[in-house]
């Protein structure tokens, strides 16, 4: 069989060439020739996809082996025992008891955290459950990853994307009165079809993960009604926000001239600001309820902490995350002097007031140390560089022809040019950058931990992280290579050890 450098369906043929199979590239450019890059682009994309699949599959296999360990890790045992020892000799905090729902509200829940029980004992008790949860997730991830990989390859080799574009043109002309040269309207039809197809394809995997794995391990709180209402809301929002966004993006490229990437960069900058503004204020409340944190000691102390580091906190919210999952979290948002903090209601149930303050000290550390701004700047630089390189191959007709877009009667649709660029030339760059950003994220997490330690919250942050890890059944003995590649946050034992080392230096 010839190398797969041209798919079964092509625009020039207008049909699937099942008899010929995956054929070699033919005369579809103006002079009938192909650049070496375009000639090998489809085969190279398939090869890179397989390479990533094999590499990540190897890491998954290593992590799967780690989940088969039956003995509690010695390093974690030694580290957590020190935390218990420190807690035993520390003065009992008043609000620990006040905020401990375990002895009252959760008295019937045998898996709830016991605030008076040593953390090591509780982690050891949940080690088997943690390993089981991790094993279920990794097995599911390997199956889903295998499907997604070979589906992507099939889409490329079959030429499904040019086929779907041609069907979008026909659908627009036949039912919507859209002319074949109205590219933006056809693009919106194409993206709508693609979104609906992707939603249907991913639905079985999402249902299984939510209502089998998450439910089995006691995390899922969603009903089927809530699950599907979220899906419908997401699709509607995609149309309301995504439609105008795509139209403006295409217009920017079309009318930007040779240096369109500069205007495209500026457009993405302002759109990013716009989305960062409306998502927490208008979009997220469509899915969850946000209520002001009730008056009391915790609210007063959070405002005091914010004032201590000059964080312009305006509002404190509690989000009803428990209606979907028992996983916990906290986050911040807002521009300038209008900052807000959101606590999951599950977090309030799982840790003490002191530990919440320590966790927020960590999160506020990201702001104080400039991590939030740095990530935003890095994202904008990424867009600028990517759009510049896209502009260099935007007019490369033979590149797109190699993927089935070899029609000589019309130009390559701009949205297709963008999608193929990020799928081919930019894909290896994206993988490398993704790993670099993961390494940087871990560095930021250690720095934010250090910030919380400097605030005098080390012991509370350590115990708080242990409790969150306990409640979320986090991996207690992750494989080193797997965690280095996938984890944006360092493993628990590494964070605890780093904080203890900082305390030792202070002493």
UniProtKB/TrEMBL annotation:
EC primary class: hydrolase
A GO CC annotation given for this chain: endoplasmic reticulum membrane
Start and end residues of each Peptidase M48 domain: 292-500
Compartments (UniProt record): Endoplasmic reticulum membrane
Cofactors, names only: Zn(2+)
Catalysed reactions listed for this entry: Hydrolyzes the peptide bond -P2-(S-farnesyl or geranylgeranyl)C-P1'-P2'-P3'-COOH where P1' and P2' are amino acids with aliphatic side chains and P3' is any C-terminal residue
The keyword Lipoprotein belongs to this UniProt entry's keyword annotation: no
UniProt keyword list: Endoplasmic reticulum, Hydrolase, Membrane, Metal-binding, Metalloprotease, Protease, Transmembrane, Transmembrane helix, Zinc
GO biological process per UniProt: CAAX-box protein processing
Pfam families listed in its UniProt record: Peptidase_M48, Peptidase_M48_N
Domain CAAX prenyl protease 1 N-terminal: residue ranges: 124-289
Coiled-coil residues: none
Domain of life the protein comes from: Eukaryota
GO MF term list: metal ion binding; metalloendopeptidase activity
Residue ranges, annotated region (Disordered): 82-113
Entries under Gene3D superfamilies matching the protein: Metalloproteases ('zincins'), catalytic domain
Active site: 363, 449
Binding-site residues, Zn(2+): 362, 366, 445
Biased composition annotated in UniProt, kind: Basic and acidic residues: 85-113
Membrane topology: Multi-pass membrane protein
Residue ranges of the TM segments: 37-55, 232-250, 262-283, 372-390, 410-429
Name by which UniProt lists this protein: Ste24 endopeptidase
């Amino acid at each position: 069989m010839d190398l797969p450098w041209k798919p079964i369906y092509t625009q020039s043929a207008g049909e699937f060439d099942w008899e010929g199979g995956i054929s070699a590239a033919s005369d579809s450019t103006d002079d009938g020739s192909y650049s070496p890059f375009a000639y090998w682009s489809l085969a190279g994309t398939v090869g890179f996809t397989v390479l990533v699949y094999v590499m990540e599959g190897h890491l998954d296999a290593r992590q799967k082996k780690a989940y088969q360990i039956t003995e509690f890790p010695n390093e974690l045992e030694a580290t957590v025992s020190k935390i218990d020892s420190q807690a035993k000799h520390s003065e009992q905090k008043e609000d620990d008891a006040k905020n401990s729902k375990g002895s009252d509200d959760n008295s019937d829940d045998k898996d709830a955290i016991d605030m008076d029980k040593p953390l090591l004992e509780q982690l050891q008790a949940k080690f088997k459950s943690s390993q089981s949860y991790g094993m279920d997730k990794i097995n599911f991830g390997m199956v889903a990853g295998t499907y997604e990989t070979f589906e992507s390859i099939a889409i490329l080799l079959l030429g499904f994307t040019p086929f779907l574009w041609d069907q979008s043109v026909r659908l627009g002309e036949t039912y919507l009165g859209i002319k074949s040269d109205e590219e933006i309207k056809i693009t919106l039809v194409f993206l709508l079809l693609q979104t609906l197809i992707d939603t249907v394809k991913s639905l079985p995997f999402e249902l299984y993960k939510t209502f089998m794995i998450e439910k089995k391990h006691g995390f899922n709180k969603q009903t089927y009604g809530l699950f599907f209402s979220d899906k419908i809301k997401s699709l509607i929002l995609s149309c309301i926000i995504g439609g105008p966004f795509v139209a403006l993006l295409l217009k920017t490229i079309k009318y930007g001239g040779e240096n369109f990437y500069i205007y495209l960069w500026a457009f993405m900058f302002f759109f990013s600001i716009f989305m960062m503004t409306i998502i927490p204020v208008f979009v997220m409340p469509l899915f969850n309820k946000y209520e002001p944190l009730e008056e009391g000691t915790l609210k007063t102390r959070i405002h005091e902490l914010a004032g201590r580091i000059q964080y312009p906190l305006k509002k404190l919210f509690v989000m009803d995350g428990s209606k979907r999952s028992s996983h916990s979290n906290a986050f911040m948002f807002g521009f300038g002097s209008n900052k807000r903090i959101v606590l999951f209601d599950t977090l309030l149930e799982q840790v003490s007031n002191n530990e919440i303050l320590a966790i927020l000290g960590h999160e506020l550390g990201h702001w104080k140390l400039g991590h939030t701004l740095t990530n935003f700047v890095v994202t904008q630089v990424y867009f600028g560089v990517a759009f510049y390189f896209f502009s260099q191959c935007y007019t490369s007709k033979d590149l797109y022809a190699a993927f089935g877009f070899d029609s000589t009667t019309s130009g390559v649709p701009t949205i297709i040019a963008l999608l193929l660029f990020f799928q081919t030339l930019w894909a290896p760059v994206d993988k490398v950058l993704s790993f670099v950003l993961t390494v940087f994220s871990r560095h930021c997490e250690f720095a934010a931990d250090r910030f919380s330690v400097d605030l005098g919250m080390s012991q509370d942050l350590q115990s708080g992280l242990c409790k969150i890890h306990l409640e979320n059944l986090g991996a207690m003995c992750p494989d080193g290579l797997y965690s280095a590649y996938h984890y944006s946050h360092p493993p628990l034992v590494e964070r605890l050890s780093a904080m203890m080392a900082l305390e030792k230096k202070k002493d």
